[in-house]
Structure formats: C-alpha cells, structure tokens
Design goal:
The complex is a heterodimer of chains A (155) and B (238).
Chain A (H helix, E strand, L loop, with lengths): L2 H16 L4 H12 L4 H11 L3 H10 L11 E6 L2 H5 L2 H11 L14 E6 L11 E3 L2 E3 L4 H12 L1
Parallel strand pairs in A: 1-2
Antiparallel strand pairs in A: 1-3, 3-4
Chain B lengths: L2 E6 L2 E6 L4 H7 L23 E4 L5 E3 L10 E3 L3 H17 L14 H8 L16 E2 L5 E4 L8 H10 L4 E4 L6 E4 L16 H5 L5 E3 L12 H11 L6
Parallel strand pairs in B: 1-5
Antiparallel strand pairs in B: 1-2, 3-4, 3-5, 6-7, 7-10, 8-9
The chains are: A alpha+beta (155), B alpha+beta (238).
Chain lengths: 155, 238
Amino acid sequence: MEKEKEEILEGIYKAAQANGDNIISILQELQHQFGYVQKDSVEWFARKSNIPEAKFYGVLTFYSQFHMSPRGKNIVTVCSGTVCHVKGSARIISKLREDLKLKGNEVTTKDGLFTLENVNCVGACSIAPVVIVNEKVYGKMSPDKMLKNLKAYKE
Amino acid sequence: MSVVTLHINDEIVSARSDQKLLEVIREQGIEIPTLCHMDGISELGGCRLCLVEVKGSNRLLAACVTPVQEGMSVYTHSERLVNYRHITMELLLSERNHTCAVCVMNGHCELQYEAAELGVDHVRYEYMTPDLPIDASHSKFTLDHNRCILCMRCVRVCDEVEGAHTLDVMGRGTNSRIITALNRPWGDSISCTKCGKCVQVCPTGALFEKGSSVGEMEKRHAFLSWILNGRERKEWHW
C-alpha cells in the first residue's frame, strides 16, 4: 500500500478509536475519503482494529449507502416506488441503460461519467416518475425527455 | 436469585427470575420446536418456531428471548400457534433448495425432523429455487448455501466460543448469505482455525465434513457443552 494512503488510514483509525471503533462511521469516513470503500483499506482496518473482516463486510452489504466499486462523476437515481413504477419508471431505466451502454449488472459507465441506480421511493409521488441527477430533481419524466436532460451532463 | 411463579398451559410453575421462557417450558417436559436456539451460545430469536402466546399481549413472543415474569400466563400449543408454526416451517422450506434425497444430512437433519414433527408434508408457497453457489475451497469442510436457513448458529459459535469470527452474514432479507472473511473463499481465510465448531452446530446440511455422502453426516451437538463445562471447571491445559 502506498505511503500516502496509509497515512490517511492512520488518521481515520485515530479518529475512530476516540469514537469507540464505530464500524459505520469508519466505513463512512473511508467512502468519503476515497469515493468508495476499497477492499484493501477494509483489510488494513480489520488487522489494525481487531474488528473481524466478516463483520465489516456484513455492515457494508447491509446498508445501500456503501459502495465497493468506483462510482461515476454523475449519479443518476431513478425512483422505482409504487407510483413511479405505475407511471413507467421501468421504461426510463431501460432507455437510460441503453443510452449509457450498460450491460448485465453494470451500474457505472466505462468512461466513469455516470452511475445509474434505482431507489424505492424519493417521497415525491405527485411528480412521478422522478429522476434525480446528482442533487437536481426532474419530475414528470418520460424516456425521451430524460435523454434530453442527460445530454447536458455529457459535456 | 429470586423465584417467580407463572402459569404454563394453566399449570402453576415456578422458575428462577433470570430464566428465559423456553428453558422453563422445556423443564416441564413440554416440546416446542426450535432451530436457532442452542445451549451454550447466545440467543438470537430468529427462527420464530418457539413463538408462544402470553396473556395480555396480542403479539406472539419468542420463548427463547422472553424473560419469565411473576404471574404471567403462557400458552404453548394454542390453535393459532400450531397454525403459525406450520406456516413458518413452510416458509423456511420454500426459501432455498432443501432437497433431502441428495443431502448429506438426510435422516439426521434438525430442519427435516422439526418439519416432520409439525406435520409439514407439503409446502403451499411457491419455491424460490435461488441459484446459489457451494464453497468447497476449505480443506476439511464444505459450505452449501442451498441448505442454509440462516439460523446464525455457526456465526455465533465462531465468534463466542472459538473467538475467530470468520463467519458472518452479508446482505439483507432473502439476499442474506453466510460469508467467510471479506466474502473470500473459505479456504483463503486467514482467521479460520479449522476447529469445525460451525459444522457441528449447523442444524442442516449447509455445513458438512468433506467426504461424507448422502445421509452420512451426523453432527455431535454434545461437544459444545463438553467444551464449555470443561472451560468453567478449568479442565483444559495447554
């Protein structure tokens, strides 16, 4: 492991110790520092802090806020809640996947520009179907309208 | 330690105040099914087979994690409970691929035994038949996710008795799975001590010793109390 990275990890470790070795806050800090939770830094932590690796992995996979692979520059979140689903969110997702050339279980594009994910409800059913790009909310979307909106992020 | 008195199926029973309901019920010679409970490790309250009815509470309570209370009135085999246990067992069986005929534990399996005791001869729910892998990378044992019921006995015994905590659970709901270390193959795990406690406590054929064929795997449950009692009496020397 590079020296710089180890120094960052050492810093997180010291802060975590003062916090009483809280697994969730360690993982949140790791994700904040590196953009996603890297396997080797979890291994480093498990060795250092006496928290078993398996326990880390259990928490990592339980919460959807944690990611174990690099994420795109823009996060596109499509709502798949009941109302959005009825209003055709599945069609938006398949159109976007086609446009972003995502295959199989992939969620991030090859150029690292976009990550596409769906959530179960964003609580904005009155403007369903909803798509959120980064922090901006697009309501009453259709597949074609969304493709147009997405173009602005491609530059 | 104070003593409390309570009613179990309308019989007056006395118990120590630190006891759990399950222990008291079993002391009375009343049989209730359990899968996640095991003497010697902590309680989980996960399998929901030991549910009992307590007067004054309209929720059903898991006997293994409910402490006894003065004057409580407990029913263990009401019509509602028999029905619910039946349903719980059917749901357990429908979740993964429990095919007894090709299982190493056929005839010695706790899941099979409890299902037969409850009279579950068919499952009314659609089988989920998930596509699950088998981890045979370990030199002595095999982990077959198809037969796992997520009772977490292996996880608890690995953490509490062996102290290795090689095993844990990943994911949520029906996607949950037993993992070893950072979801690496079991054979690559550096924390596993190959003690085999997880295999011996597993109620189904999900964990078994390599080389056993259909119906050949028998688990030795008594070993756990043997180890723990020996520790208490300081019989072990090394």
